[in-house]
Design a protein that fits this description.
Blueprint lengths: L2 H30 L5 E2 L20 E2 L1 H19 L8 E3 L6 E3 L28 H11 L6 E2 L7 E5 L4 E10 L2 E6 L3 E6 L3 E14 L4 E8 L5 E6 L3 E5 L3 E6 L8 E12 L4 E14 L2 E14 L2 E16 L4 E12 L4 E17 L3 E16 L5 E3 L2 E13 L1 E13 L7 E14 L2 E12 L10 E12 L1
Antiparallel strand pairs: 1-2, 3-4, 3-5, 6-7, 6-10, 7-8, 8-9, 10-11, 10-14, 11-12, 12-13, 15-16, 15-27, 16-17, 17-18, 18-19, 19-20, 20-21, 21-22, 21-23, 23-24, 24-25, 25-26, 26-27
Helix pairs in contact: 1-3
Length: 471
Amino acid sequence: MTDQEKHLRQSASVMRILGWLLVVGLILAMSVYPPGFMWGAQPQGFLNIGPPHPPSPYDGLHPYLYMLLALYVAYGILSERTRPHVVGRSVHLPDGCGAVVLAPGAQTPGLAMGWNRNLMSSSRQRWWTPSAVVLITLCVASPLRAQFVSDAEKSDSLRLRNGDWVVGDLREMERGMVTYKTDAMSTIYVKWPRVLTATTNKRFEIHLDDERRYLGSLQASETLGRVVIRADRDTFEVATQSIFELKRIKPNFWDRLDGSLDFGFDFQQQNAKTDLSLQSETRYLFNRNRLNLGLDGSFSRQDSVADITRGTAQLSYARELQGLWFVGFSASAEQNSQLSLDIRGSIGGGPGRIFIANNKMELAALLGIAYSRERFTSEEARNTVPLGLITDVQFFNWSGLSTDLSSRLSIQPVLNDSGRWRISFSIDLTQEILNLLYLTVGLDEEYDSKPPSADANKNDFRLTTSLGWTY
């Protein structure tokens, strides 16, 4: 690796770190300190941070939030309009961040504020040079990963039933659909039943319909309708359609990350009601290990009614075992003013099994035990030991744009509090509207049969509509 490539990788890492800090910081700030984002009366219990401002004629979002949104949009338009031409080998940054040419003497014309410098004119330049700083500034607005693309990455091939060969970059195959990137047509989607055989040197986690799973690559077979699996310890041939999922084993930490970010907003002028919701999920996959970080927060304000806040953070880990068995562990923290729950922290785990896994449906369940410490409003903190049964079911359909229907049911009898049950249910309908952009409508219900606080509600129902983006 040359010094120039090393310096550019360093700048890409800085872009990612700054961008994610900004996104996570905004989510935490809106959950922890709503007055910083709401314009109007100061709620009781919150410190008055910053200079005082005159009273507002309405309760709504802070004007600075709209200014920040305008900056994001402006940076995105600017970077899209000033995308430089690529000469020779290039570094492809995320959409809206252009590309930087690595060939000596190549220029980066007019990125912003009149910069037109040779980014790689000297090996003595460092990642904090003005051009790199401009790139960092532009990419903070969309904190995606930077990725080096070479011709070797586009050496995969698919043979279709009509006899055509498609050459490009095989990304993944799930839910009966292959994600494939080509130079001529960018990213395309191919239905797996139309594929006769495939070749790729990349490492995948290969799932077969008889519950077998392998780590390896694929080689086209001389027999049509079959493919050779080159696993770590064996090489053998199977029917192409016996493969129902290909999960890419990506080469580095950042490439293995994926997830989603959802934002919902609703305002009614008649009663000055404002609803905000933010959800994010980050997944990390490595071989048979899966790490998931989920954040969910909502805020509701209405005239003459106390503000309602909800927040949940959960870190979970799952390890796949033989067949369709797995073991899972999780640690979580939650708060819900509607249920008078100030804080609840939990840690637990147990075995689970995937009962159905095909191109249309997935069904899994986990049975485990947990330890929780919770505190309700005006009550002392107490320890509980819930036994949990959690089921997840998901239906999906690919027809150009994907449609997902997912549901989770959690039933937790509390072992050290006789007669107390905690039940939570959620169902979400997600419709992709553009590539990586989707619309979600969700229902959530929380129920506690015997809350410690006598004044606490037993259930909390929530309906949300949000716009989301996957990365």
